[in-house]
Amino acid sequence: MGKPQKVSLQEAISLIKDGDMLTFSGFTIWRRPMAAIYEMIRQGKKNLHLVEVNGGTHDDMLIGAGCVKIWESCWVGHELYGKIGGNFSRKAETGEIIYEDYSHVQMLYRLVAGAQGIPFMPTYASLGSDILNPAYDALGRAGLRDGSNPKIPPKKYEMFKEPFSGTEVALIPAAQPDWCIAHVNMVGSEGTVRVFGQKYSDEEAMKAADKVIVITEQIVPEEFIRREPERNLVPPYLVDYIVELPWGAHPTGCFGSYEADGAFINEFFTKTRTQEGFDAWAQEWIFGVKDHDEYLNKLGASRLEKLRASAALGYSTKVKRGSR
Amino acid sequence: MGKPQKVSLQEAISLIKDGDMLTFSGFTIWRRPMAAIYEMIRQGKKNLHLVEVNGGTHDDMLIGAGCVKIWESCWVGHELYGKIGGNFSRKAETGEIIYEDYSHVQMLYRLVAGAQGIPFMPTYASLGSDILNPAYDALGRAGLRDGSNPKIPPKKYEMFKEPFSGTEVALIPAAQPDWCIAHVNMVGSEGTVRVFGQKYSDEEAMKAADKVIVITEQIVPEEFIRREPERNLVPPYLVDYIVELPWGAHPTGCFGSYEADGAFINEFFTKTRTQEGFDAWAQEWIFGVKDHDEYLNKLGASRLEKLRASAALGYSTKVKRGSR
Amino acid sequence: MAGNEYAKPGEFKPIDLLAVAAAREVNDGEVVFAGTGLPMLAIMLAQLTTSPNAVCIYEAGSVDGRPISLPTSVGDARCIYQASIASGLYDVFGQLQRGVVDLAFLGGAEIDQYGNVNTTAMGGYFGGKRLTGSGGNPDINALAKRTVFIFVQEKRRWVERCSYITSPGWRIPHWPSGEFVHKKEVYGKAFRGGPSAVISNMGVFRFDDDGVIYLDTVHPGFTPEQVKENCMFDLNISRVSGETKPPTYRDLELLYNVVDPEGIFLP
Amino acid sequence: MAGNEYAKPGEFKPIDLLAVAAAREVNDGEVVFAGTGLPMLAIMLAQLTTSPNAVCIYEAGSVDGRPISLPTSVGDARCIYQASIASGLYDVFGQLQRGVVDLAFLGGAEIDQYGNVNTTAMGGYFGGKRLTGSGGNPDINALAKRTVFIFVQEKRRWVERCSYITSPGWRIPHWPSGEFVHKKEVYGKAFRGGPSAVISNMGVFRFDDDGVIYLDTVHPGFTPEQVKENCMFDLNISRVSGETKPPTYRDLELLYNVVDPEGIFLP
Fold first, then answer.
1. Is the pTM of this model over 0.95?
2. What chain A residue is nearest to C38 in terms of C-alpha separation?
């Protein structure tokens, strides 16, 4: 295991190959590596295979841009700011992407097994759901469970009558994505990673993946981050590339750093219900800006300041969120 | 799930019945609930069934006192201060206790499965070890895998050729002990639990057990412990009884609070190699003191002060540990 | 108007009654798993009224948060203010599977007479209208001791059998064969319970021993027959026990001034 | 005497050479899983000399600690000083099983010609002399890419086949049948490596392609024949490549003044 390299976002993303299997940090519209999503779209990635505990604004965008061939997860939407993943739904309905549904626990357990280096996890969760309907094994239907892709298990799951108490459990195969792209609050100068607040399934995602790109709000002296090793998430040797990029999770939220930009997400949702709408939106916000700095300037400093989290609360009190 | 009750050590321990299955916090000679061990011996518990990730001074003592019928774990010793668990070895050799060996990962996984509510965990760890030799299934030999005790699985383990990559894994059955007795650094007034430093397998042990007794160095206002919920280990509803008892882990060490008392442990090891030696030692240190306060006074304040951890380092710099 | 008096028709909105009726399903001291939206209003209202010792878990990884500002989703930074634990999915779903969760609040897009719920696709899994997907709905519904669904009652979404069963109710397919059986048969020793109530904008529904839904109370302003007409299946209205109690003035004040003063879920 | 010169016979103790020879097994940048005692001296000395970027994991749950005071055991509070991560067993054993660990340092009470090690019971599992038990020894030995055993060479403890195989070497029983086969057969696709060296107070040993031990270098002051006489089995001494390099003065200074100034493991 080597030491992580500090690189630019463009360099990090250029290492991802068409067809690679990816997973991400965060939860729905929280702490998603959005700057990396934008850059993957700019670089025109194709045929990506997403395997994630849940989706959100980030994968709906990647799907809208035509970067994704296979989606394995349990949910896409924008929470309060968009009731479905409009791009995901459109491409799912037209058959432009292959979607393989698991439940939250099942997806989590795929990454837990990948992180623990075991071939599967057993679970009682979601027995009786059509998720387990053999007719809905999308990768199987597409002929992709033939062993030619080592990242795709030969079976979606297996029912098993276990020998200890005689119950039936579902065995859910491990996932070890090629890459985890994670947005985090803080990285030490040698690569120790810390997130603030809820950890979602970040630890499992980073440990399951073969390679990890960490995008961080800030790099701090390693000595500082090691004063409280109880608070850290993964050590340097599990990180391959580090990119320092404040606001890199915008428009999703980042506990302790900034609020989710609901207005931005809602506008994305509203404007990208059609492919034409997506293309126009992407022209403005992705292709129309050269890099993350231009993106931030286009958003404007005052918008960002309103989103900045209160030091006491971990979220912003300056954003209008509801109807009153 | 109810709220945890604050009780005396005597009350908490009185709830443990002869024959109950127990697990503990800590690791070898670190953060063991020693005051509870002393009290169990005072109360004359019998036929206890220990299921723990590893043993140490605490279970060697409980075994020496004749409280234990079945031990399922992977290790007993006193680290630098006693190369084997003298009481464990003596009673194992004479057949006075039933010992079922698993490996560290296997024991951990038994509690992981118990904590996650799944019937087993699969693992590649320790394949090829005599731990898996069917002739050495001690509980099976003793006729205890007949289903009459719901806490004892019908099989020690099962080899399984898994359907995803065709490897053979060992399936290790879940354990859900009747009780976890944990010594921790801090508990909120409503019952939120925090430990400092390494967590060992405390989270798994507490979550796997049906009931949890937490012995704490101190109780703090709940509002205080909730300022940093990222640092907390388990919520109040997973705790049944709380006992506030500073130095309750002595002679084992407690990160951030005090050092392991190596001289005390070594004296225990040296003096209790025989049953007569154990009985004399127990007369002095367990039966000869009424309760934890008397025990602390017998140790003496200056001894305790030498063991107290540096606020900067988490351990004491005042203890002579080696030969120089 | 005393706080504990019931509000009169016209003084509350249908959504208020949904939240209040759901809150009444909580028993004090219970551990409750809640999703985004109305479930948040329900558990927070319950904690402010009848169930001060109820504990709320959000699936993104917060346990017993005491937010002073309403979260917009379960991953929201607000969820962990004064929480007991801020962790992640592995912790809280593990607790769920361990059997710690007494009650869950969930929603969905389509529901059937057995309490099966669809949040995945309407009109066919392949080629139908694609929705968000399962999230943790089927996991939570599978493993909580009781589940309460909060559900807008649109006739075409209250069906005899869901076109896709995302979340398993009382009668479910036993995979891989697909035989349709009682939940107890599928879960065996791991069986813990299932949907205990459905709360719609028209009434409160419960399930009989065979796992079939029936109308328990009807909301003010509706008749049982009207409720039945809003189902695609033959709703059992023979067991109606009366009218759903409206919100109290105190409930409404708490909902609008304490729980959701910003108007996030309450318009 | 320059620091990099080798110390002469009489200027170092057998235990010093054990620590130094073990330290030389570390390649810079490797992730090393180390147990209590000599393994700690070896990894710390390696980090101070040839392998400043090696990372040490202790199984109680510390990753890359930079202790300024020698831990007496892997659960010691000292392990996490300036550590990258302080967690628990589930984290670090998970990393081990995931394939992250390059090298492990382990010990034992009895070893056989296949690198199998016994830490459980001498003279029979039931009724024999009971030792500590496995700890993580068999897990680590099973799943690290390479294992180095540090072992005092007492003839009766260097046997043809361990009376109890706690920790699986190169030829092991395939349970449940017990057929004695190469480790690769038992682990299949999960195979990652096995014992790469044994370091005793008399020499450094390695394993041939069949997984049988041979003497690689002999420590100063011993002959290969003497080493062979200290084994119960027919040790292969045909491949001896020379004499083990003694510690340098710098090694000794680091061991006694920096790594273990208190004399915890070095008497």
1. yes
2. A80
